[in-house]
Design goal:
A: alpha+beta, 17% strand, disordered C terminus, B: five-stranded parallel beta sheet
Chain lengths: 312, 132
């Protein structure tokens, strides 16, 4: 607060000093002197205001950098943690999976087949297998968050990639009366990026959009060139929207508003990780109860040496 | 019946290696177990094996060390690396050291059997090439 007041009043200080010293020394005896002094005071004000703006900009840049640093630190902790957890969980999961395979084999024996309760047991066993698969999936997602994804950069047509991904989900969307509208910019420049990673992100956003709508709604997918250096993809849905207090958290690992067991809270965190590794950024705008739009900005990355490059 | 490889399972988790042996025996594979890297190397010196299924992370002698020892002892023994370890990249790195394939825990039995058969086929193919 004090800082804000300082920056508000600081531009006036030099002007007030000039005028005050003029009054005190009695230089105002001639009208032209007063005019000159006022001009000097004006120039002093403009200069001081410019200085304050520069300081504000520097402070803003510093704040943004600090935020990025905090996020990077958080993610690296998550990376280390998840790698460790993944290992510790996969080993016992391996044992559980093997034991269920063995019991399934034992159940096939003729003497056990005669037992009335065997069906119940088999059903429980299938449930154990399903839950192991579920844990496996969570660990797998953790790993892709933890793994240092090394993009393989290739030349790609973003419109084509987006169309392919919408085709994958189209049938399911039709069954739920969700319309997909495509608003793809013709002559969109080719982009040098990692196609499988981008597919993963676009598909994730489409699935999230469908979850937000559940039934009856629209998803609009747009692409456009933003500048000679960058393009953007927007996935907008007319779903339930995100409450204001949650908007900032949607990219945070393990944050999920989905029902228990329905979401791991890692999808969007992975999406952001991927997009940032590809040199872009992803943001969200949402109106609770109405709509949500995710926007991906991607650099075009024109590479003169050829189509394929390894590493980021 | 098609010939089956003689397998050595190396894992520091007793329950894991024993159940894997039982599962393989249902499919008529003959397998022995070792609970550590040094135990595995002793066993390999004493008896002949076609295939080793080897856990990467073990105390004392690690899977990577065992792998290089196996390859020194007999380069025709095929090794399938097993890992619950975080990174697939790590498993790939280990494959560069001469392992045939890798298996991520938890695995499906069908996946394991496929890998065993493929590795053994390769070993048999190599033997045919070297034998006159």
């Amino acid at each position: 607060m004090a800082k804000r007041l300082n920056s508000r009043f600081f531009p006036y200080i030099p002007s007030v000093l000039v005028l005050a010293s003029a009054v005190l020394t009695g230089v105002f005896s001639e009208p032209w002197q007063a005019v000159v002094l006022l001009v000097i005071a004006g120039i002093a004000y403009i200069n001081a205001k410019g200085t304050v703006k520069t300081i504000d900009k520097a402070e803003e840049a510093c704040r943004t950098l600090n935020e990025q640093l905090c996020r990077a630190e958080k993610l690296s902790t998550v990376d280390e943690l998840s790698a460790g957890i993944a290992h510790e969980i996969n080993n016992p999961l391996g044992i559980i999976a093997q034991e269920t395979q063995w019991i399934k084999h034992v159940f096939k024996s003729k003497s056990l087949q005669k037992l009335k309760e065997i069906e119940d047991c088999a059903d429980s066993l299938n449930q154990i297998c399903m839950q192991v698969d579920r844990c496996k999936e969570i660990v797998h997602k953790l790993l892709s968050l933890a793994r240092e994804l090394e993009p393989v950069i290739q030349c790609l047509d973003l419109n084509e990639l987006v169309s392919q991904m919408t085709n994958i989900v189209k049938k399911e969307m039709e069954e739920r009366n969700i319309k997909i509208l495509m608003n793809l910019e013709t002559n969109l420049p080719l982009v040098y990026s990692d196609p499988p990673l981008l597919r993963q992100v676009v598909l994730n956003l489409l699935i999230n959009a469908a979850h937000a709508i559940e039934r009856d709604g629209e998803i609009c997918v747009s692409t456009m060139a933003v500048s000679p250096q960058s393009v953007k993809v927007i996935v907008m849905d007319t779903g339930c929207g995100i409450p204001k207090e949650h908007v900032d958290k949607v990219f945070t690992p393990f944050f999920s508003t989905k029902k228990q067991g329905k979401g791991t809270g890692l999808g969007l965190a992975i999406c952001r990780g991927i997009i940032e590794r590809l040199g872009g950024n992803i943001s969200v705008v949402s109106e609770f109860g109405k709509s949500t739009a995710f926007t991906i900005h991607l650099p075009i990355n024109r590479i003169p040496q050829g189509d394929i490059l390894h590493g980021s | 019946m098609a010939p089956k490889p003689k397998i050595l399972i190396v894992d520091d988790e007793e329950r894991f290696r024993n159940t894997m042996r039982k599962l393989l025996s249902i499919e008529d594979y003959e397998a022995s177990v070792a609970g550590s890297g040094s135990e595995a190397l002793d066993e390999l010196h004493k008896n002949n094996y076609d295939l080793v299924i080897l856990d990467v992370r073990m105390p004392e002698v690690s899977g990577v060390q065992v792998l290089s020892e196996i390859k020194k002892l007999d380069p025709t023994i095929e090794v399938i690396i097993m890992t619950g370890y975080a990174s697939v990249d790590t498993a790939k790195e280990i494959m560069k050291l001469g392992a045939y394939d890798y298996l991520l825990k938890p695995y499906a039995i069908s996946e394991l059997l496929e890998k065993i058969d493929a590795a053994y086929e390769r070993k048999l193919g190599r033997r045919q090439l070297t034998e006159p």
